[in-house]
Design brief:
With about 300 residues, this protein is α/β, with parallel strands linked by helices. It is built from eleven helices and eight strands. Helix 2 runs antiparallel to helix 6.
Amino acid sequence: MPVWGIALGGGAARGWVHIGVLQAITEAGFAPQVVCGTSIGALVGAAYAAGNLETLADWVVTLTKIDVIRFFELDLSWRGVVDTDRLRRFLVEHVASEDLRIEDLPMSFAAVATDMDTGQEVWLKKGKVLDAVWASIALPGLLPAIRHRGRWLLDGGLVNPVPVSVCRALGAEVVLAVNLNTDLIGRQARRKERLSRPGGWRSWMTQYAPSVFSSRTQESPPSLFEAVAAGMHIILDRITRSRMAGDPPDLLLAPRLSHLGLMEFHRAEEAMAEGRRIAQGMMEELRRLLDESDKDD
């Protein structure tokens, strides 16, 4: 069988789709030799490569709205709004151990980040797994930039939302890509959900940024966070289209995720079910591509 890889795209809470995709692929007997991820794709991909996918899956399905809100804490330095200590504990417990290195993984793995000063795309293929994941998920405004080998790194979705090119560079002859942002532009708005929570910073988050956790009605004006989220969707969509036009995957999975808000991490079961659905629907096509590539060799 030819070397094949999976490119897991960025998209915040919609990234739990990747868990369902990887579960379905594994159960069908297809194990990618190359796993590359951007942002949440790097996080899920790292958990898979480290053998912790089911540990991660078991945890994310227990998340509630309150659990998600607890990850947010105002940083008085204004570098971000995510509780970094809590996030670090989560990564160690459910993604990869503190000292695990990419070189020691049983498959080729890379995470994509962005050099804040130059805008250069950075492929993290060596070093600690958690350092690579942390750099790849450092979304501006939520998580602080990460210092790595003399550079300040930000979320890889700013330059390569679906890292097909990275998979090919790591030796994948066939690439399956999962794009989480295909149906976000022009999506139909839903009724927004209000969250009732205790006072303080987290209360401000739920009162003034409901769009982070849900969508809004067409009549209501966009909040600050909703405008930021919409801008991110547009940027991701345009960058993804451009990158994949120049280097298209052999097989593209495009889950229907417009009903999921940017930070609705508590809706993991829905996202994972959608991942399984689209993966199972393309299994025969993947088998055909791998067989054809094997014959060509």
